[in-house]
Amino acid sequence: MSGTRKEIADARRLVVKVGSSALTTAGSGLDTARLDALVDAIAGRAARDAQIVLVSSGAIGAGLAPLKLGKRPRDLATKQAAASVGQLALAHAYAESFSRYSLTVGQVLLTSDDVVRRSHYRNAQRTFSRLLALGAVPVVNENDTVATQEIRFGDNDRLAALVAHLIGADALILLSDVDGLYDGDPRDGATRKITEVLGESDVDGIAVGMSSSGLGTGGMVSKLAAARTAAGAGIPVLLAAAVDAGDALGEATVGTAFAPADARLSARRFWLGYAADTSGKLHLDDGAVRAILRRRSLLAAGITGLDGDFQAGDVVDLVDAADVPVARGVVGFDAGELPALIGRSSHEVPVEYRREVVHADDLVPLRR
Question: What's the pTM value of the predicted model, to 2 decimals?
């Protein structure tokens, strides 16, 4: 067993995420047999003194059959109506299933606003901490009944990665209808399953696609992004099939394991890099890119342009010459102040402007 898999198998606090396709079908809605099998695996891990947070998709899928909808709706209002009906059914099903093991379920519905705002982020952190201390199993979902397109996470995979860091999880397990990460379409017999990902170079250039079920919003693209986010923040990740939940939550011998970065990000730096909304971006020259990737402060001399109407204290993306984000940081100037400063050395600007545009303490590189 690899070191990463042992970390996952021995984790005392972990987040488990399950996708819609693993719990629901388009024709029949919620599949209680699949849900019970998942709960069996989680309860087995909980019996080993593990604390588990379950991030569960499936509310919209669970609401399709009761509302006599043949397929997942495309318009926001109908999605929210389906989520309203399905969320109740999903929560009830989990409560009934976990009660077989005398485990209490606590429902936690989140919108992206709850984690992109620092005050909400800390409040969510306290709620999870108390639920776990009381022995409950928090079941988390995006609050689809009120979330609009502008404030959505986009998928529960990203939400799971954010929650994993928020609660200080020792591991993240992503369960879906695919048994791991492949170097191409898994339906193509010529593709190869990747069992261990040690760093970014192991997944560079891999073409991944969407789930074929039509029920979820994620697919392998979002799962890979979530795995990279969590692993980059120092959390080991296992990507596996929901039908293998028992093995995934047991010895972690299935699926694809993602090795964590050497150092875990602080809560502030993780929030800054992965959870906070950005208000604009700063374009950097090659020298500035190299500097910030070494966690050096960004000076005006290394900036070539800017986009957005941001104010001092806002979070902005720092992008390279190809417009690819390489870091995020808290900007020290208003957007209106910077055009007269960019590209100029410190001794060329008035004394009151001779400071960092983004200080190293408020900067998070996005490349490992």
Answer: 0.79
